[in-house]
UniProtKB/TrEMBL annotation:
Name of the protein described by the UniProt record: 1,4-alpha-glucan branching enzyme
InterPro entries per UniProt: 57_glycoside_trans_central, BE_C, Branching_enz_MT3115-like, Glyco_hydro/deAcase_b/a-brl, Glyco_hydro_38_N_sf, Glyco_hydro_57/38_cen_sf, Glyco_hydro_57_N
Family that this chain belongs to: Belongs to the glycosyl hydrolase 57 family.
Active site: 194 (nucleophile), 355 (proton donor)
E.C. number(s) listed in UniProt: 2.4.1.18
GO cellular component, one term: extracellular region
Binding site for substrate: 246, 263, 409, 470
Keywords assigned: Carbohydrate metabolism, Glycosyltransferase, Transferase
Pfam families: BE_C (PF09210), Glyco_hydro_57 (PF03065)
GO MF entry, a single one: 1,4-alpha-glucan branching enzyme activity
Glycoside hydrolase family 57 N-terminal domain mapped to chain residues: 12-329
Residue ranges constituting the 1,4-alpha-glucan branching enzyme C-terminal domain according to the UniProt record: 431-532
Organism lineage: Bacteria, Pseudomonadati, Chrysiogenota, Chrysiogenia, Chrysiogenales
Species of the source: Desulfurispira natronophila
């Protein structure tokens, strides 16, 4: 495609994030499954899809955020070892399932599909990725397929942390530092946690070398002055940091389970899982060790319709649906940019940001959709150019200067999801701890005592983990709310206990410190408590 054929640009952005969960005190732990499922259903299938496109000579360009909390889990030796054990357990169950469904003409093909898929994913993990998913991201960053951007260190909800500015600065500085070590390049952009922006945040971003960030639609539409081109061109803040806004139309087509593609009746039904469907004694070795039924990731039915009745999943039908929807998406974007081009008098940019886990985990065929989308973009059209966000800024360096509006991409568009009667108690504690840590960081700034540094570094880890926006979100949605509350309280208590050890050596307990350093080991290569020094 030549530049004079381009009617517009498409910027696909995938936000890859999970909260830091690691429980070495348990052999198997329910919330650790969040990571194992995401690896098997999203991260490895994404890399396999890019690998296939590369082999076929198909051009793909994607901006991907890999949050520091996720990347630290993906490089953790214990979690990688446990992921492999998890996959072998799944294959053991699938071998049993093949025996059980041998004569079932409807279910046998579904089980065979899963058995083959899980084996291929495990093989790819071991052979291609050398038992570390991050190796795949590094490869495609090196080949130019991926632009990998960062996020705040533990996905802290920054508007609610701004009253203790060192918390915001630490989240950004450590996020950039960890990203640079892991991926070998300084990130140009950042995905703000929950796309949550407040006025002045761009100053902290620029201090850390970040050139752009993303906001939801109204963050730009309500800017001062109003954006001339709406969300279809980036804007600059007064300090020169670029801002990209989310396109609503393309978002709705992919996000919505009712209006959008994922609700097609041919696709896999997420909520029918063998962890609940199969007899208890049969499935017991594969569910939670305490005996509670859970989703194990094997779902044999398609959506079928609105009612409870579900028909067996037919993989070929689902693939046809994914190809149809990819074609529809491309056609819609071409029509959209051609219209906007005439109105704007220039080639528009359509920014399509999504949670990466939507593709493969929630919408099982989402990765197939992306595969067909890139193939159709490559072969079937020449109006739309796929770009990373840095690509676009390099090609189009001049933009309007505005002050974006405070905004998030959460329900109702502002802060309510992360600040309400169900979770507001969090912030008093994290604010107090942040003030205390800043004071202690100043006091011990020049210490050369290894034990003091270890205590202060672990205190910083505990504070950062307590600040994760995931806990407030889960409390609001009442999804794993008890776990989220418990995690928040534990990190606060851990911080206080460590502070007591720092200030009173008579209560020093090395077993406690070493246990926390191993369990809550995030940023073990990156942490320096002095980031809390004003």
């Amino acid at each position: 495609m030549t530049s004079n054929q381009t009617s517009g640009y498409l910027g696909l952005v995938l936000h890859s994030h999970l909260p830091f969960v690691k429980h070495p005190e348990h052999e198997r732990f329910l919330e650790e499954n969040w990571l194992y499922e995401a690896i098997s259903e999203t991260y490895i299938p994404f890399l396999m899809m890019l690998d296939q496109l590369e082999q076929e000579g198909v051009n793909a360009r994607v901006t991907v955020s890999v949050t520091p909390s996720l990347s630290n889990m993906l490089e953790d030796p214990l979690l990688n070892e446990r992921y492999e054990k998890h996959m072998h357990l799944m294959l053991e169950l699938l071998d049993k399932e093949q025996e059980r469904t041998f004569d079932d003409h409807a279910m046998a093909p579904v089980v065979a599909f899963y058995r083959d898929r899980f084996q291929k994913i495990l093989d790819y993990y071991i052979v291609n990725l050398k038992r570390c998913v991050l190796n795949g991201y590094r490869h495609f960053q090196q080949t130019g397929v991926l632009e990998i951007i960062t996020c705040a260190a533990t996905h802290g909800f920054l508007p609610n942390l701004r009253f203790t500015p060192r918390s915001v600065a630490a989240q950004i500085e450590l996020g950039v530092r960890s990203h640079t070590r892991i991926f070998g390049q300084t990130p140009k952009g950042i995905w703000l946690p929950e796309c949550a922006y407040f006025e002045g945040l761009e100053d902290t971003l620029k201090e850390n070398g970040l050139e752009y960030f993303l906001v939801d639609t109204h963050g730009i539409l309500f800017s001062r002055p109003r954006s001339i081109y709406g969300n279809f061109a980036p804007v600059f803040t007064p300090n020169g940091t670029a801002v990209f806004g989310r396109d609503q139309e393309s978002s709705r087509q992919v996000w919505s389970s009712k209006e959008g593609y994922p609700g097609d009746f041919r696709y896999r039904e997420f909520y029918r899982d063998v962890g609940w469907d199969l007899p208890y004694n049969y499935i017991k070795p594969y569910i939670n060790p305490d005996g509670k039924r859970i989703f194990v990731g094997l779902k044999y039915y398609r959506i079928t319709g609105q009612g409870d009745f579900k028909e067996p999943y037919v993989r070929q039908d689902a693939m046809e649906a994914a190809a149809e929807h990819a074609g529809n998406f491309v056609d819609n974007r071409i029509e959209q940019v051609q219209h906007l081009n005439q109105v704007m008098g220039k080639a528009p940019l359509v920014v399509c940001p999504y949670d990466a886990e939507l593709f493969g985990h929630w919408w099982y065929e989402g990765m197939d959709f992306l595969y067909f989308l890139f193939k159709k973009m490559h072969y079937d059209q020449d109006s739309l150019q796929v770009v990373t966000l840095s690509d676009y800024l390099q090609q189009n360096p001049e933009h309007q200067v505005v002050k974006p509006a405070s905004s998030t991409w959460g329900d109702k568009g502002y802060n309510e999801v992360w600040l309400n009667r169900g979770n507001d108690w969090i912030y008093k504690y994290v604010h107090d701890l942040s003030i205390q840590l800043s004071s202690l960081a100043r006091k011990y700034r020049y210490t050369t005592d290894e034990l003091q540094e270890r205590l202060l570094n672990q205190m910083a880890r505990e504070l950062l983990l307590a600040e994760s926006s995931d806990w407030a979100f889960l409390m609001t949605t009442q999804t794993a709310a008890e776990y989220a509350s418990r995690r928040t309280v534990l990190h606060i208590e851990n911080f206080r206990r460590l502070a007591n050890m720092l200030l009173d050596h008579s209560v020093m307990d090395m077993d406690v410190l070493e246990g926390l350093e191993f369990k809550n080991s995030i940023f073990h290569q990156d942490m320096d408590f002095r980031i809390y020094c004003p």
